[in-house]
């Protein structure tokens, strides 16, 4: 009885303290209705799996359920750290992501160059064509690569033979895997990735260029002193986002490009998680590796954002 | 007088340097076009060529030994057409769901008078950087009985937070708060305002997001690989993977002359299947391209 009274008075006091807020929420109920589908979907399919992450700390048995399975502590993390695959997957993931990280400036240069093309119709055709590969699916891209890069009867084989040389087996050597992975990405996405920088360049006040022309600036000087400084904030924002995904080499392409010959250079964390988890059904082990990966990415992101906020005033939040 | 000559002379000097640079830029652009276009062009001519001529490196600029056998072989593979049908279904339904869910959420979050806006934004953005990972997500899908259903391809992963942020920024810059205030005075509710005023003013962002979703759905294979088992539900990309990457055609081959012909056809099939799978999306995107400027560029940069 007493507690019931207490609860009621608590509710009353919350209500009276926040009456205005509740009234504002009520008035805009339509907006919450618009948000509802997205929120429900995220709770069901993104937040609910986050709760499932605890199986990384348990000896998960499907029959016992998540709660019923016994705790295992850090057993599966230790298992991963001590396994032979630990250094292989970490190294491959790091090599590929740092390598593609190094290609980060390419779309920026690309945008600066495109911006220099004065003939408008040519520029439009040029952009349409260079965006095109972005729309090709990963499966088809990998299929294309297998066909074109085959040293025997592919295009690259023909090119090498034209000069009387033997083509390297690009798809079959572990050491070349990261190059194949990264440069095919560059080929596919550079045009598209430059869009955002072109947008930043198109927002430059034309009077800046006019003033520079009057002062006798050359094209190169305009690039150096107008274009590049304009692009830096955008570049920093995208760079921070990239760091957050440093250990996040995607499953899709790596998995398709893998074969028995290049596996020692192509097994990355995401493909390993897939094989351990869904092929050999070691649920807890797979979840532990996955969580380790996510945590590193998350920490890196927060760290870089903090550094960037401190030194460049650019940040994600 | 001296100042005047200087003015005339100096631009002339820089202009010659600029002209050199201009020429270099166009040479560079032509080179880039070649690098992007040639591999694609090569696949097109190879799909019409005698596969042994392709294999011997005789096909460079034009098809050699013109043949339509690859395309004829394509017609015989019923699973390609089942895949096509499924992909069209997933693309249409998935895009529709994606647009409704994300554009609505983007609009609601763009409104400054939404109580709890900060927390709600955080609720969305957090998922961009943290998630449960493969196995817990797989278990969740199974718990909801979505494993091996059509629905798993179009519903569970239709929230795209990045798109919501882009839409939010678009609405913030293109739908002034005063418009809502005026409508409100006239007795218009949030939902009617959204449907009758906001959406018609937002064709650019709708077109861009529609393109993103459609391309994403058309090209997706990861979810199908993990959550589908029934071959009749497979999207085109998964069938393509069998033909192009794991090359399941060849495992069925024996030896002898029949095998030679089959191998020949399977190589040819790979070229034509690439064309058939990629051409639709290539035809579609230039029409939406004109919206890129208005839609994406507005505010994808910050926030």
Descriptive account of the structure:
The complex is a heterodimer of chains A (317) and B (303). By secondary structure, chain A is mostly helical. Chain A has two domains: 2-55, no CATH class; 75-311, MetI-like fold. Chain A has helices at 2-17, 19-27, 29-52, 65-68, 75-82, 84-102, 106-116, 120-131, 138-148, 155-162, 177-193, 195-202, 206-214, 219-244, 251-257, 263-266, 269-279, 283-312. The model of chain A has no long low-confidence stretch (mean pLDDT 88). Chain B has helices at 2-47, 51-55, 69-76, 78-110, 117-129, 134-143, 151-154, 161-174, 177-185, 190-198, 203-219, 222-227, 236-245, 248-251, 256-295. Chain B is globular and about 80 Å long. At the A-B interface, helix 2, helix 3, helix 7, helix 8 and helix 9 of A face helix 1, helix 4, helix 5, helix 6 and helix 10 of B. Chain B: Residues 84-274 form the ABC transmembrane type-1 domain. Chain B: This is Carbohydrate ABC transporter permease. Chain B: One of its GO terms (cellular component) is plasma membrane. Chain B: Keywords: Cell membrane, Membrane, Transmembrane, Transmembrane helix, Transport.
The average pLDDT score of chain A comes to: 88
Cα end-to-end separation of chain B? 53 Å
CATH third-level topology of chain B: MetI-like fold
Q: Helix count of chain A? A: 18
CATH class of the largest domain in chain A: Mainly Alpha
Shape of chain B: globular
By CATH, the architecture of the largest domain in chain A is named Orthogonal Bundle
Task: Note the run of SSEs of chain A as H and E.
Answer: HHHHHHHHHHHHHHHHHH
- And the CATH topology of the largest domain in chain A? MetI-like fold
Please tell me how large the radius of gyration of chain B is: 27 Å
The proportion of residues in beta strands of chain B is under 5%
- Class from secondary-structure proportions of chain A: mainly alpha
Q: What structural category characterises the helix and strand content of chain B?
A: mainly alpha
The CATH architecture assignment of chain B turns out to be Orthogonal Bundle
| Biggest β-sheet description of chain A | none
Helix content of chain B: over 70%
Number of domains of chain A: 2
Number-wise, the strands of chain A total 0
> Which residues of chain B sit in consecutive blocks of at least 5 with pLDDT less than 50?
1-13, 299-303
